[in-house]
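This part of the workshop introduces the protein records we will be handling. As an example, a complete record with its sequence and its structure tokens follows.
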Amino acid sequence: MQSEIGLIGLAVMGENLALNIANHGFAISVFNRTTSKVDDFVNGRAKGKPVTGTHALPEFVASLKKPRKIIMLVKAGQAVDDLIDHLVPLCEPGDILIDGGNSLFSDTIRRTKYVDGKGLLYVGSGVSGGEEGALNGPSLMPGGSPTAWKAIKPIFQAICAKTPDGDPCCDWMGENGAGHFVKMIHNGIEYGDMQLICEVYDVMKRGLGLTNEEMHKVFAEWNTEELDSYLIEITRDILAHKDETGADVVDVILDAAGQKGTGKWTVIAALDDGVPLTLISEAVFARCLSAIKEERVAASKEITGKVSVFKGDKEKVIKDLRAALYAAKIVSYAQGYQLMRAAAKTYNWNLNYGGIALVWRGGCIIRSAFLGEIKKAFKRNPALVNLLLDKFFKKAVSSRQKGWRRAVILATKLGIPVPCLSTALAYFDGYRSERLPANLLQAQRDYFGAHTYERVDQPRGQFFHTNWTGHGGTTTSKAYTV
């Protein structure tokens, strides 16, 4: 009997996703370049399930029902291109290749065009939720060849996570690279959320002198309120976890963060489209700063100044930190959605912004109750330019402004860095400013480079130049925006 879908790549995500598919009653064929992994899987975790192991790509492809649906879970980059080149000659028109890895969206745009040109269909799908999500229900963000969606929809929406209301956390994102772009934004927001939580933790630990047990209780309480989310939940659990010696595990972990690149891609995409993605950018750079551990240790011995310990009302500071975390989180999503809107215009995607929030409600790393409000915001106004202009989020941030500012001021006074909390506040203040000092910046550019400027008393799009020194000419540099 032929399988309804196939999967290549039996690493952690591949194994768990294959089991998820099989557990929902879909017969699946699997293949791995190291064939012993296929045998171990079929005779181990997949024993007794509708899973067929194969030892060669021709055998794998022949085991699938037409039109064939093939999920590729291999390392992003050249490995995906190589696998596509091996599969295309074995497939027939209408067969569907699905990249479920963390591929760069521009690669997916290129691959969709290439595979479509061979008569096949291509899907680049974001998969979020890690090992647990892959097994029990991930958030899925497919995009690519539009006609592929009808064929993969029954399987994808069966195996994905569900919202509390039972809606599937999977929907079609759009053409070519839209699915992987949305997943990239998800990961960028994830970077921001994690760094914000870490900054609040740092202020409580070093600034307030709270114990891990005390912080565990704080995060446990927050997880029952407006900050209810997966990342707050696991932070609560991490702070209570001890090793076999009774030591708190979090305290023995080296403070040097790693990253796989999706945060960096998000920042590059923002620069390409001219979107002020300041919070996520700072989250990426915070990881870079953490990574130079030895250099920081040496600097700590050379540069004077130490962290002070707060002596006042700690409960009040904790409330301010909660306000700051929630307000900054709103800014992170606002910036992420601005980037999606800009990219949709650049790449001619028709993104469903409220639907994206729904897809993120369950299964993924950034899942939270908060996302339901984003869906409502775009239901109220599908053309919403910025989340900060929605009535719910406008009120949510405004009511937390004072606490947010106090938290950032206190951290600065204590000598504790809060790059994401503070840059979120700077963005908020900048976005709501009718006038910024860029008039002086434009004057400087025109002075040294004759780059021209616009005037407040003339229509937009008209450019002017001043002979600032009296001995310059009237020749100007071409006006342009990078």
User: Anything to note?
Assistant: The mean pLDDT is 93. The first strand starts at residue 5 and ends at 8. DSSP finds 20 helices and eight strands in the chain. The longest helix spans residues 314-347.
